[in-house]
From TrEMBL:
Domain Flagellar hook-associated protein 2 C-terminal: 240-535
Entry GO CC: bacterial-type flagellum filament cap; bacterial-type flagellum hook; extracellular region
Entry's family note: Belongs to the FliD family.
Subunit structure, as described in the record: Homopentamer.
Main location: secreted
Protein's name in the database: Flagellar hook-associated protein 2
Organism: Clostridium oryzae
Superkingdom of this protein's organism: Bacteria
Swiss-Prot/TrEMBL keywords: Bacterial flagellum, Cell projection, Cilium, Coiled coil, Flagellum, Secreted
Cell compartment(s), UniProt: Secreted; Bacterial flagellum
Length: 545
């Protein structure tokens, strides 16, 4: 921002004044212009102060935007920092043994029950698949339909397998590439080429047709396969069979990520010890027994080895993330509250150029630091935002089942802190370990019972709305002070004010210069008349002598 400049009535080296009259013209003109100089200095100071004010607002806007992007915006916050990510409110953690990790990995969401979960994996989910095992191509048109997209490939008689694969990789349906929907795998060792849909499960479908369909065994429709698993949750006597379209799915707060089918064996039910005499699924000694009856009444049992997932209370990681959020929040609130409460010292005003001439750079810096204090004192937008944030912490969240005080989240007792948050570690960890789903709702809930009114929204949702209203696309502060890469960058209120002040100062300088010149012209006329008088006096004296 520009510094304050002033138009002083300094001596012009083109003027020769006071030779005849002995009058210090510059001194008198400066005195006569002192009132105008004061007005001009004041106008420059006001403009500088407005620029400082804009800089102070932009600094606050930047801090608020950085905070919003880090914690409140799902588009920019990372999985570790987003306060709308359920994983950051988890009071339990899942683990598997090294031996079981080749079959399964797992994680938990808020609300997962503690205990041992067992899973046997009969089959992994897979996509729809077609293969070429001959290593030969059939010339003609090849049509590959996936969902509502049809991809057409022209296979020529001169194509090599590499040419064909490159053609597949560069095939589009409109702007959509075939490679967005299928994985193309080719083994130089075996010469086998396969296409498999990226979507898995029985509903994944791929249709092959056209005169070149023989490449993949002829025109046909292929479907994917669902994953088949047997899960035993804590407290359950027998496993429950589940089919899932993906190898990663969540049930009752536990996310299962299937890696490989479990070890399996099959035998006649009568040969088992003890023999199994009824159809059904049972579990014993880490083995799942799935017994089925054939049409002739014969019972056959298939056995699957189980992998165990241990879900234990562990709120340390979530506590650290929530605390980090409120630490940054308190820093932000502290910075804003400092600006709102610091007192202005009227003895320190923006410096004029004339004042700066007699000061060192260090002196100027120290002076301007003091002059900038109190520049945002009692700002209504910022103070209103702090009030709204405090109310968001203490406000009711219908349907959450918890309040901020129940989980140890409260504002400090010192009102001068502007609503800083303090955390009872024991209470928060206990809530995360035992009622994590409700803690997450308290922070992130968007609606309840079909209503999305403000009193149904979680603390973070309210925070996001409040901050966005101040520094969002058309935020109150954005319109007032502007911000880079927004439509208010140059059309904001303060920029308009600065522009008007600059115009006023330019006009004042022009008037100042004109008025100053008139005074010099008056003294120049006095000098000329005095010269004439002196000349006449000299002539008369010479004539008389």
């Amino acid at each position: 921002m520009s510094s304050v400049s002033s138009t002083s009535s300094s001596t012009s080296y083109n003027r020769m004044t006071g030779l005849a009259t002995g009058v210090d013209t510059d001194k008198y003109v400066e005195q006569m212009m002192s009132g105008d100089q004061t007005k001009l200095d004041k106008a420059n100071q006001n403009e500088q102060y407005t620029e400082w004010q804009q800089e102070a607002y932009v600094d606050i806007i930047t801090k608020l935007k950085d905070f919003y992007k880090k914690y409140l915006d799902t588009a920019t916050a990372t999985s570790d920092t987003s306060m709308l990510n359920a994983n950051n409110f988890n009071g339990v953690a899942a683990s598997v043994s090294d031996d079981d990790s080749k079959y399964i990995s797992a994680s938990t969401l808020p609300g997962a029950a503690k205990g041992i979960y067992s899973i046997a994996i009969e089959k992994l989910a897979s996509g729809a698949k077609v293969e070429n095992t001959s290593g030969t191509l059939t010339a003609g048109d090849l049509s590959i339909k996936i969902g509502d997209k049809t991809f057409n490939v022209n296979v020529t008689s001169t194509m090599t397998m590499d040419d064909f694969i490159n053609s597949l990789k560069n095939t589009y349906s409109g702007d959509d590439a075939l490679t967005n929907h299928v994985n193309i795998n080719y083994s130089q060792l075996t010469g086998k080429l396969s296409l498999e849909t990226k979507d898995t499960g029985f509903t994944a479908e791929m249709q092959i047709s056209g005169t070149a369909a023989g490449i993949f065994g002829g025109a046909a429709t292929s479907n994917g396969n669902d994953a088949v698993v047997y899960i035993t949750e804590p407290g359950m006597a027998n496993p429950v069979k589940k089919t899932e379209s993906s190898n990663k799915f969540t049930i009752d707060g536990v996310t299962y990520n299937l890696q490989s089918p479990s070890p399996t064996d099959s035998a006649s039910s009568s040969t088992l010890v003890p023999p199994i005499t009824e159809e059904g699924i049972t579990e014993k000694g880490g083995v799942v027994y799935n017994t089925t009856r054939a049409s002739d009444g014969t019972l056959t049992t298939t056995m699957y080895g189980q992998s165990n997932i241990s879900v234990k209370a562990n709120a340390d990681d979530s506590y650290k993330k929530i605390k980090a959020f409120f630490d940054d929040y308190n820093t932000l609130i502290g910075d804003i509250n400092t600006k709102l409460t610091e007192k202005k010292d009227s003895d320190y005003q923006p410096l004029t150029d004339a004042q700066k001439k007699d000061m060192t750079e260090d002196q100027i810096t120290k002076w301007e630091t003091k002059a900038k204090k109190g520049i945002l004192r009692n700002d209504t937008v910022l103070s209103g935002m702090l009030t709204s944030l405090r109310e968001a912490v203490y406000g009711t969240v219908k349907g959450a089942g918890l309040t901020n005080t129940q989980i140890g989240i409260t504002t400090t007792s010192d009102y001068k802190n502007g609503g800083k948050i303090q955390i009872d570690e024991s209470k928060l960890k206990d809530a995360l370990e035992n009622r994590a789903d409700q803690v997450f709702d308290l922070f992130s809930q968007y609606s309840f019972n079909g209503s999305s009114s403000d009193d149904t929204k979680g603390i973070i949702r309210k925070f996001g709305k409040i901050v966005d209203g101040v520094v969002g696309f058309d935020g109150t502060l954005i319109q007032k002070a502007g911000y880079t890469d927004t439509r208010w960058e140059v059309t904001n209120d303060l920029s308009k004010s600065i522009t008007e002040q600059k115009k006023k100062i330019t006009l004042m300088k022009e008037n100042f210069a004109e008025k100053q010149q008139r005074y010099y012209n008056m003294f120049a006329t006095l000098e000329a008349n005095m010269n004439k008088l002196n000349s006449q006096s000299s002539w008369l004296s010479s004539a008389l002598s």
